[in-house]
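Priority: low. Protein: ribose-phosphate diphosphokinase. Input follows.
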Amino acid sequence: MSYHEPEAKIFSCSESTYLAEKIAESYGTKLGKVTMSRYSDGEFQPSFEESIRGLRVFLVCSTFPNSDNLMELLLMIDAAKRASARHITAVIPYFGWARQDRKDKPRVPIGAKLVAKLLESAGATRIMTMDLHADQIQGFFEKPVDHLFASTIFLPHVRDLNLDNLTIASPDMGGSKRAYAYSKFLQSDVVICYKHRKAANVVEAMELIGEVKGRNVILVDDMIDTGGTLTKAADLMIEKGALSVRAICTHAILSGDAYEKIENSKLSELIVTDSIPLKKESKKIRVITCADLFADVMHKVHQNNSISGKFLM
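Result:
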């Protein structure tokens, strides 16, 4: 009797359906059916409307605020475990609470570690995510973590721009490793911005380390939240003689007045993935889907094939 690998099914949390549908289409299947029962007080209960016994299930859910997204993912993982799924992979394109990866002052939590423990306690057997805010978050898990890099989809786009005198820039010291990795593949120069914050999301001062005069600059970062750092960096670089400034940010959080800052800044273009849905359209924002990347890696994981080719950085 020949053995056939059990099929895999893909399901989505409510706020990630827009991306999960594209992932499922790229994977070559249809999104599994989940219903959500809601109580009048706001409590909710997910239910799988098809059998998943003995199967590998991929649960697609970016855990951006509010916390209902994370709670919905946890409940779906628990439901899949109790429905006897064989493997439960939490596919988290944007891993929320990742900025809380350490104690940066007394009497604060390490939120990323707490989220990791919650996911494992719920029953996740594997985690798949993209461009974590801090690489060491992988070590918070006892289960396998597939940490994908959006550079695999951004780099071809940058090459297609055919920019002369290209310089890669990091908006802060913490992103210098990412900037150098991009510059290695693009064979370009690197500049670093040094910033001093007076509070969270508030940049008090910024200095530029490196030369940008006569250069086409691309800022690279893992996320853009209020947009304060990137727009301030772009304006500074234009003042210093840069020909143009673009930005590549994996996760488009874009909270507060971020859209207005981008529109009024010297940024010529902001390139992001669809790990988080845009709140509104903007002529300056270009979205590149990460669906094909996740679908390809999910295929490889299900077939027990190597995914090392997806780790460009």
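The chain has a mean pLDDT of 93. The CA atoms of residues 149 and 311 lie 6 Å apart.
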